[in-house]
Structures are given as structure tokens and as C-alpha cells.
């Protein structure tokens, strides 16, 4: 029976017997296998040149140095440093002493609220508590008896309070330059909060739209990424499918001007079409024949 190149004989065993591999030979995929298979080995200078070129395009961990069959000490130390930064971003409390004055300097007087999670430990163990307001915060917002608002802005610490401290106000200023009317929107700070808490806050403020900015889960190369979620007609029980999200907002990721342009687009489109989420895409405002 002739064998078609690229196709496997169905009668052949799925796994090649171990005895067919010579003792001491490395498996395919092993970093040293290429040399055994006859591939040319790069000299150290060429390798470093290629590695440096790759690193200019991404902070991701690519082209790691090795020592024998293990990572080089410098790579292990760098990984530990990134892990320490991620842990710090996750556990360091939101600095209201930094954030509140920044909001006031930007001409917003923030309202302070807290989720039903009493502290950081409970927040991490009970995600459901981070999605709803504490009784005191709910009563305080209810007592405002707010008139219907076109927009409510919520700053939530999320999983990286550092992201809110660093990026929320600069992003708001960039957005206000494009959408001046957001200057009149109420601004709420929510501690120990997750995304869905914006639904309850927006509902209590009778907001047509809720724009929630939150610290994203820290990554090994991004401990301070900010996410922005936009929800039409916010109310308790909304699902993530009913929101639009712009992610990785920070100077090393999606920069403030570009992020502000995207948020401004979704604000206008949501108001025009009366929806957000999976029913609102970047081409939603185009005529149907051009999508």
C-alpha cells in the first residue's frame, strides 16, 4: 500500500515504540534536538542579536537563555521579579490618598463606595461579594435620589489597584478632550470591586450608560493594565455578553489617546443604537452593505 505524503496510515500504531529511539536520543521538541537533527547551531553573537531584535517587539518571554537543560540564572531572577511585581499589584491596597486628589484636580468630586467584601482576603476568596455593594454604600447611593444621568463613571480597584492609581485619571482626561460632556458625569470609586458592581451603581444612579474602569488581573509583563467596560442600561443581573471591553490600557500597551478614541466611539455608538455587548461592534455604525 502506497502512503500519501502528510497522511498517516490508519493501521499504524498511534505511538512509536520506545525501543525504536536509540538510547540517549532526545525527543523531538527538545531544545537540543535541532542540533542532533543536523540543524545549524547559532553562534552566541548571532543568537543575542536575534534575541534583542525579538525583545524590541514584545515584552513576552521569548528566546529565553538557557544553561544546559535549565533556564539561565538571569532568566529565573527576571521571572521571580515579575512574579513579585504581580503579587504586589494584587495585594497592595488602593491608595485613596493618591487617587482622590487626582480626581479633584481633574474637576471630579468622587463618591466613595465599598463592595460587600470586607477586606482583600475575602475579596479574593469570594468573587460574588466583589460584584455587589455593601449595605452602607447601597444606602448612601439610594439616599442621593439621583436624577436620570446619561453616564456614570466608576473607578474600581479590581485585581490591580495600581492600574487605577496610575492610569484612570490620565485616561479620563484624554476621553474628556474627545467627549466634553463626560465632565458632568458622576464619578464613583469602588473598593474591593469587580466588574459587575458597575451594574448596581449605575442602576442606583439611574444612568443610561455605565463606564467602569478597573485594574485587570496582573500578568508577568503587565502588573498595571487597566480595562474599561461600557454597559448600556446598567442594572443588577447584566451579563458580560452585554458589555464592551477595551483592555490592556497603559503606556506600554494601548496608550491613552488610542484607548480614549475607542471608548468615545463606543459611547457614541451605544447612544445611537441603544445597546452594548455582542450586539455592538466596531462596524455597527456602517451601512449594512459595508460590514
Q: What amount of the residues lies in strands?
A: 5-15%
Please tell me what the overall shape is: globular
Order of helices and strands: HHEEHHEHHHEHEHEEEH
| Order of the strands making up the biggest sheet | 3-5-4-6-7-8
Structural class: alpha/beta
Q: Tell me how many strands there are.
A: 8
Describe the biggest sheet? 6 strands, mixed
CA-atom Rg in angstroms: 26 Å
Provide a count of the helices: 10
- Which ranges are low-confidence, i.e. pLDDT below 50, for 5 or more consecutive residues? 1-6, 13-31
What's the end-to-end separation, in Å? 50 Å
- Percent range for helical residues? 25-40%
Mean pLDDT: 87
Question: Any chance you could write out the topology, listing elements then pairs?
Answer:
Elements (H helix, E strand, L loop, with lengths): L32 H4 L7 H12 L10 E2 L2 E2 L1 H19 L4 H10 L5 E4 L5 H6 L1 H4 L4 H10 L7 E5 L4 H18 L8 E5 L5 H8 L4 E7 L10 E7 L10 E7 L6 H18 L18
Parallel strand pairs: 3-5, 4-5, 4-6
Antiparallel strand pairs: 1-2, 6-7, 7-8
Helix pairs in contact: 8-10
Explain what you see.
With 291 residues, this protein is α/β, with parallel strands linked by helices. The protein contains 10 helices and 8 strands. It has a 6-stranded mixed sheet with strand order 3-5-4-6-7-8, sandwiched between helices. A two-stranded antiparallel sheet has the order 1-2. Helix 8 (161-178) crosses helix 10. Mean pLDDT is 87; it is low at 1-6 and 13-31.
Q: Can you give keywords for this protein?
A:
single chain; 291 residues; alpha/beta; two-stranded antiparallel sheet; disordered N terminus
